[in-house]
C-alpha cells in the first residue's frame, strides 16, 4: 500500500501520470484537425484576396459561404436526390455482394468461374458504363443507383470472401471435432470472423458510393449534386459548384462514420483497442 502510494507520488512529482485521460486525448484529436483546417481556409482566403482572383475562377471560402446561404434550398433538394441514389445503390450492393461472396467461398467451381468475371467487370471504367445505362434505362434515378451498385459491389465481395476464409485453423479443427453442420460452422465461426472484414469493405464502398452517384449524374440527370455542379459550372457560378462539392464531401464523411458507428455496435470485439 505504501509502496504503491509512493510510486504514485513520484510520478506526480515528476510531472507524469500513469494513465491517460481518454476524454483529453479525444478532444485533442478533434481540435488539431479543426485548427489545421481553419488555418488552410485562412490561407486560401488571403491568397485569393491578395492575388485578386475572380470568384468565377476560384472563389474564396467566404464567397462559398455566401453561396450556401443564397442557395441552401437548392443544395438541400439536390442533396436528398444524391443521398437517395447513394444509399439505394449501397444497400443493393450489400444485398447482392454478401450472399455472392458466401457462394463463391462455399463452392470451388464458382470461385473459378465467377470470380474472374467479377474482376473483369471491376476493371471496366464506370464512367464508360454510365452513358450506356442512361441510354438503356433512361435518365431517372435507376441508372445512378446501378452505377453506385457497380462501384460498391466489388469491394464488398472481396472483403466478405476474405473474411470468410480467415477463420483460424485451430478453430476450424475444433468445430470439425464437434461434428458441426455447415450452417453451424457458418453461424458460429465463419460469419463472426468475417464481420470485421465485411465492415472494412463497407467503409470503403460507402465512400465510393457517393462518387458513383455523382458519375451517374454527370452523364445524364436533371437533379442531384452532380447535375448542380455541371449546371453551375457551365453558367460560371463557381461558388455554387464549390458549395455542392463541400456538401458532397460532408456527405461522404457522415456516411463513413455512420457505417463505423454500426460497426462498433455489431462488432464491439473488433473495435476495442
Task: Sum up the structure in keywords.
273 residues, mainly alpha, MetI-like fold, 12 helices, 0% strand, globular, disordered N terminus, transport, ABC transporter permease, transmembrane helix, transmembrane, cell membrane
Task: Explain what this protein looks like in three dimensions.
There is one protein chain. With 273 residues, the protein is mainly alpha-helical. 84% of the residues lie in helices and 0% in strands. It has two domains: 2-49, no CATH class; 60-271, Orthogonal Bundle (MetI-like fold), CATH 1.10.3720. The protein has twelve helices and no strands. The longest helix is centred in the last third of the chain and has 38 residues, at 182-219.
Low-confidence stretches: 1-25
Total beta strand runs:
0
SSE series: HHHHHHHHHHHH
Query: What portion of residues is helical?
Result: over 70%
Report the total helices: 12
Q: What would you call the structural class?
A: mainly alpha
Distance between the termini: 30 Å
In CATH, the topology of the largest domain is named MetI-like fold
Structurally, the number of domains stands at 2
Mean pLDDT across all amino acids: 82
Main sheet record: none
CATH superfamily of the largest domain: MetI-like
User: If you compute it from the alpha carbons, what radius of gyration comes out, rounded to the nearest whole angstrom?
Assistant: 25 Å
In one word, what is the shape? globular
The CATH first-level class of the largest domain comes to Mainly Alpha
Amino acid at each position: 500500500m505504501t509502496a504503491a502510494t509512493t510510486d504514485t507520488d513520484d510520478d506526480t512529482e515528476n510531472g507524469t501520470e500513469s494513465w491517460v485521460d481518454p476524454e483529453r486525448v479525444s478532444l485533442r484529436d478533434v481540435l488539431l484537425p479543426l485548427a489545421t483546417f481553419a488555418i488552410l481556409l485562412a490561407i486560401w482566403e488571403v491568397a485569393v484576396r491578395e492575388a485578386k482572383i475572380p470568384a468565377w475562377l476560384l472563389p474564396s471560402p467566404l464567397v462559398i459561404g455566401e453561396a450556401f446561404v443564397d442557395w441552401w434550398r437548392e443544395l438541400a433538394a439536390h442533396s436528398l436526390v444524391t443521398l437517395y441514389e447513394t444509399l439505394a445503390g449501397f444497400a443493393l450492393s450489400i444485398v447482392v455482394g454478401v450472399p455472392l461472396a458466401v457462394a463463391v467461398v462455399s463452392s470451388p467451381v464458382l470461385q473459378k468461374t465467377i470470380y474472374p468475371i467479377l474482376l473483369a467487370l471491376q476493371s471496366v471504367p464506370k464512367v464508360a458504363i454510365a452513358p450506356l445505362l442512361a441510354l438503356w434505362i433512361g435518365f431517372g434515378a435507376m441508372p445512378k443507383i446501378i452505377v453506385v451498385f457497380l462501384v460498391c459491389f466489388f469491394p464488398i465481395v472481396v472483403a466478405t470472401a476474405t473474411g470468410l476464409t480467415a477463420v483460424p485453423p485451430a478453430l476450424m479443427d475444433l468445430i470439425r471435432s464437434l461434428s458441426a453442420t455447415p450452417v453451424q460452422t457458418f453461424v458460429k465461426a465463419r460469419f463472426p470472423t468475417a464481420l470485421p472484414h465485411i465492415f472494412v469493405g463497407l467503409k470503403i464502398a460507402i465512400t465510393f458510393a457517393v462518387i458513383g452517384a455523382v458519375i451517374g449524374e454527370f452523364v445524364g440527370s436533371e437533379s442531384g449534386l452532380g447535375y448542380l455542379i455541371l449546371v453551375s459550372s457551365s453558367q460560371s457560378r463557381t461558388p455554387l459548384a464549390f458549395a455542392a462539392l463541400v456538401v458532397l464531401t460532408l456527405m461522404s464523411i457522415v456516411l463513413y462514420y455512420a457505417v463505423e458507428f454500426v460497426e462498433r455496435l455489431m462488432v464491439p470485439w473488433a473495435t476495442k483497442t
